[in-house]
Automatic annotation (TrEMBL):
It comes from Sporocytophaga myxococcoides. One of its GO terms (cellular component) is cytosol. It holds the Pfam family HEM4. GO terms for molecular function: uroporphyrinogen-III synthase activity. Residues 2-154 form the Tetrapyrrole biosynthesis uroporphyrinogen III synthase domain. PANTHER family: UROPORPHYRINOGEN III SYNTHASE (PTHR12390), UROPORPHYRINOGEN-III SYNTHASE (PTHR12390:SF0). This is Uroporphyrinogen-III synthase.
């Protein structure tokens, strides 16, 4: 990689990963808080760069639209493909709660089990896009995270279990 290479990361977690596995200087990593929106002001300060946008075959339009709408020079590189896992060995297993962390998880559920019925299974979703995908699939969303009183999935599950068991 060229010495002048810069890295723009959506989160601190991604930046830490880069620092652990790629030999780079800290000053060349620019980090947002949690979302692509957080990076917009940082990117605007580096308008004359040429960007490589590594992504999945399934991705949001937010970043490419921002780059396109603001005249950035960039190329998109699909570096991994999101595909459903084969879960056929779980056909006879019933779960109290199924937690989803992305819309592709809901797609995987229905790819593996097209006749899936929620019945008494509780559905948990992390993030607004995943919550929307749960509802769009005709499922009942029982547990949602992050929320102000439950910023993590474990916190949301804990609150739900306490409420369901009348624990204060």
């Amino acid at each position: 990689m060229p010495a002048e290479m810069k890295y723009f990361c959506i989160s601190e977690q991604t930046a830490n990963y880069l620092q652990k596995y790629i030999v780079i200087r800290k000053r060349k990593i620019f980090v947002g808080q949690k979302t692509a929106k957080d990076l917009e002001e940082i990117l605007k300060k580096h308008k004359n760069e040429f960007y490589l946008y590594p992504c999945s075959n399934i991705r949001k339009e937010e970043i490419p639209l921002f780059l396109k709408d603001n005249g950035f020079k960039f190329s998109e590189a699909v570096i991994y493909e999101t595909v459903p896992s084969d879960l056929s060995d779980l056909a006879e297993v019933n779960y109290d709660i199924i937690a989803f962390f992305s819309p592709s998880g809901i797609n995987s559920l229905f790819t593996n089990f097209p006749e899936f019925k929620q019945n008494k299974t509780r559905i948990a979703a992390f993030g607004p896009t995943t919550a929307k995908a749960v509802k769009d699939a005709g499922l009942i969303l029982d547990i949602e995270a992050p929320l102000p009183n439950a910023p993590s999935m474990t916190g949301a599950l804990e609150l739900y279990i306490k409420k369901a068991n009348n624990i204060k």
